[in-house]
Design goal:
- The complex is a heterodimer.
- By secondary structure, chain A is of the alpha/beta class.
- Chain A contains ten helices and nine strands.
- Chain A folds into two domains: about 1-110 and about 150-175, no CATH class; about 175-300, no CATH class.
- In chain A, about 30% of the residues lie in helices and about 15% in strands.
- In chain A, a hairpin with a 2-residue loop joins strand 6 (about 120-130) and strand 7.
- In chain A, helix 6 crosses helix 8 (about 240-250).
- Chain B is α+β, with helices and mostly antiparallel strands.
- Chain B folds into two domains: about 5-205, no CATH class; about 215-340, no CATH class.
- Chain B is about 35% helix and about 20% strand.
- Chain B is built from twelve helices and twelve strands.
- Chain B has helices spanning about 10-25, 60-65, 100-110, 120-125, 175-180, 190-205, 215-220, 225-235, 240-245, 290-310, 320-325, 330-340, and strands spanning about 5-10, 25-35, 35-40, 65-75, 80-85, 90-95, 130-135, 160-165, 165-170, 185-190, 255-260, 265-270.
- In chain B, the strands form two sheets. An eight-stranded mixed beta sheet of chain B has the order 3-2-6-7-8-9-1-10, with helices on both faces. A four-stranded antiparallel beta sheet of chain B has the order 5-4-12-11, with no helix packed on it.
- In chain B, a hairpin with a 2-residue loop joins strand 2 and strand 3 (about 35-40).
- In chain B, helix 7 (about 215-220) packs across helix 10 and helix 7 (about 215-220) crosses helix 12 (about 330-340).
- The chains are: A alpha/beta, B alpha+beta.
- The interface of A and B includes residues 62, 212, 214, 226 and 270 of A.
């Protein structure tokens, strides 16, 4: 058992036993190799279900909105940033959540692991330190987990939770600032190529809304795609409607998206529109010097007004 | 048992066989598109990927597409002109789909076929030949055996191929399939090949874990289940449509118009019981107001209403909902918990 798993269980046990929290939301072993999944622990005797490993990927802050109980949340860097936004947007009260902070060394992109073994069936996975030992019916392979992380985890500059009430493990050294080199490279492409990327990615979409539903900041009581009176957008997989869904969702998240990648993980079809979200992250940072989910005090620039707001992006009629 | 009339297709003949099929058929087969393995139209035998398990999309995609045009219309000076496309005539082959997907078509047949058949589905179904690839290596999410199917099941297929390493044993499971087996690409199977096939089949079956599905579950679901238990079971559910859209048997749809000023199309699109809009009434009232009720509907429809009404579960155990669920909410565990839940 890893140190983090052990410390998370200890924290959860204390919180439940002393009735400081009614539920601990964390991760447990999934039912398949390469998977962990959210779990909701309400009794101290059940805390041994909790685990922490390289597949603890879903953003658990997603389970906070509309919840009435006092929650202890197992919180990695990106979960904590989503929590900060939810608190600022009055969706979650700070007193309602006990943050069990977990410094995060990145999550494994299982699609990469599956590709690495030639899509052969993996039946067992063991993780120790940085080794990932895979077993199939007729093969065994050991990988270095650091080589199979999600792209965003490789460039993540908030591996430590930005706020916490208790910390498990030890704080990690933060990497340098994200240079957004992927966005720069995309910007440099000509218009046709950028359009081709968007249409190709949207073309894979099956409109299952896993991206939206996994997103901790997509909490609208009624999403614009579900409005029927008036109906803003068509419901089919026609390209224009699908693109409208993805583009408008990206705009709704401008200045709010914490780049946790929950949308990308949840998507069964490998739709990758992160470049859009990242372009907006980069612009908000460049124009307003603001990064979402980092401070509870700093107001979201797109939800406030100041006379000195930059306006070089305004279009003159 | 592997049928005695099974024949052999040598692997070196597969390419030629597929090329012949491509001459006068639309062939859909597993192929890679980037990282995704999809059941999609192939242009050449070299596109086909047979060893990598099941495709992300299920076979229903070929017969009940996510977006299907019913008719187009144009309104002009008080007149409305309708345009209905004539049915396609090309025969299609679903090649290399897995036995679970083929079996799923049997449920779709009861929904869209029968006395008041759906013309769009029935037409495509009649033009379709299903050539399945038996599973030598069922994955950890597979549970077809618990639903009455199996890694080498022939239900719903016309032909089933089983990989013996150097060749395929090919079984015919329908009149259409038997006619196909007369093709000169096939050779007679000897007793030795049949014995090897039988052994591989046994090994594949014994490698699978049983799931708690059967009469006990059906009986249990006839009695009410504690509402709190549904809440617990559905607690991690995101309420997205992954499970229903990738499912080979889910078949709920919506009809809508996609219209511009004077022209438009009436289309049929997939819908999902997991979406709030699915049961939203015109008054604004929603009889399934939260994820708990929608989750309950999905489970009850598959494992109680369909078995009772059509004598067939709405699940073939393909495991897509298990493997593709963003939060790995495993239906096998849900069914196990339901089986054990005390009656109210």
């Amino acid at each position: 058992m890893s140190r983090l798993t052990r410390e998370i269980r200890e924290a959860a046990r204390t919180l439940l036993r002393d009735k400081q929290a009614q539920v601990v939301i964390g991760f447990e072993e999934g039912s398949l190799p390469l998977r962990s999944r959210p779990c909701f622990i309400r009794k101290a005797e059940d805390v041994d279900r909790l685990v922490w490993n390289s597949f603890s990927e879903i953003n658990l802050a997603r389970y906070l909105t509309k919840r009435k109980e006092k929650v202890a949340l197992v919180t990695k860097g990106c979960d904590s940033r989503a929590l900060v936004e939810l608190i600022k947007e009055n969706q979650v009260s700070r007193d309602q959540v006990i943050v069990i902070g977990v410094p995060c060394e990145g999550m494994i992109d299982r699609a990469r692991v599956e590709a690495e073994v030639g899509h052969k069936t993996i039946v067992e996975v063991k993780e120790t330190e940085n080794r990932l030992a895979l077993k199939g019916r007729a093969f065994e392979k050991v990988l270095d987990r650091r080589e199979f992380l999600y792209e965003r985890c490789k460039t993540c500059d908030h591996r430590n939770p930005v706020l916490y009430d208790m910390l498990v493990g030890q704080l990690l050294e933060e990497k340098g600032q994200d240079a957004f080199s992927d966005v720069e490279a995309f910007n440099a492409l000509d218009r046709e190529k950028r359009w081709a990327y968007l249409t190709e990615e949207a073309g894979k979409c099956i409109r299952c809304y896993a991206c939206r539903n996994a997103c901790p900041l997509c909490y609208c009581p009624e999403c614009f795609v579900d409005t029927s009176q008036p109906q803003w957008v068509g419901k089919s997989t026609g390209l224009s409607d699908t693109l409208v869904f993805h583009l408008v969702r990206a705009f709704h998240l401008a200045g709010r998206c914490v780049a946790c990648g929950a949308c990308e993980q949840a998507c069964p079809m490998g739709v990758d529109i992160r470049k859009l979200n990242r372009k907006l992250l980069k612009d908000v940072k460049a124009l307003f010097n603001y990064e979402a989910g980092v401070s509870l005090e700093e107001a979201n620039p797109l939800a406030t007004f100041s006379a000195d707001d930059p306006e070089q992006f305004m279009v003159n009629p | 048992m592997i049928r005695e009339n099974a024949r052999i297709l040598r692997k070196e003949r597969l390419e030629r066989f597929l090329e012949d099929l491509l001459q006068d058929h639309l062939v859909l087969a597993p192929r890679r598109k980037g990282e995704l393995l999809l059941l999609d139209r192939i242009e050449s035998p070299r596109d086909v990927v047979l060893e990598d398990g099941k495709t992300k999309n299920s076979a229903k995609y070929a017969l009940f597409p996510q977006r299907e045009r019913i008719f187009a219309y144009r309104a002009e000076e008080g007149k409305v002109e309708l345009h209905v496309s004539p049915p396609a005539e090309e025969k299609q082959i679903l090649f290399g789909v897995r036995p679970c997907d083929a079996r799923g078509l049997l449920l779709l047949d009861t929904v869209f076929g029968g006395d008041c058949g759906d013309p769009y589905y029935v037409d495509k179904r009649a033009r379709t030949l299903v050539v399945s690839m038996a599973c030598v290596n069922p994955g950890p999410s597979c549970f077809c055996l618990s639903l009455g199917g199996g890694p080498c099941s022939t239900d719903g297929s016309d032909l089933v191929l089983l990989d013996l390493g150097d060749c395929y044993v090919v079984e015919a499971a329908s009149v259409k399939g038997r006619a196909f087996l007369q093709d000169r690409s096939f050779e007679d199977a000897g007793a030795e090949a049949l014995a090897r096939a039988g052994k591989i089949r046994k090994e594949a079956e014994s490698s699978m874990n049983p799931a708690a599905i059967g009469e006990a579950l059906e009986k249990r679901l006839e009695q009410p289940v504690d509402d709190l238990l549904w809440g617990d079971l559905a607690e991690s559910c995101l309420g997205c449509g992954v499970c229903t859209y990738l499912c080979p048997t889910c078949h709920c749809f919506d009809i809508c118009d996609e219209a511009a000023a004077a022209t438009g199309e009436r289309i049929r699109i997939w819908d999902s019981c997991q979406f709030p809009l699915f049961t939203q009434e015109a008054s604004g009232f929603n009889p399934r107001p939260s994820g708990k009720e929608r989750f309950r509907q999905r489970i009850m429809h598959k494992f109680s209403y369909l078995p009772r009404g059509r004598n067939m579960a709405g699940c073939v155990g393909c495991g897509r909902c298990v493997a593709e669920c963003p939060v790995n909410l495993d239906v096998r565990e849900v069914l196990e918990k339901l089986s054990q839940a005390e009656a109210q």
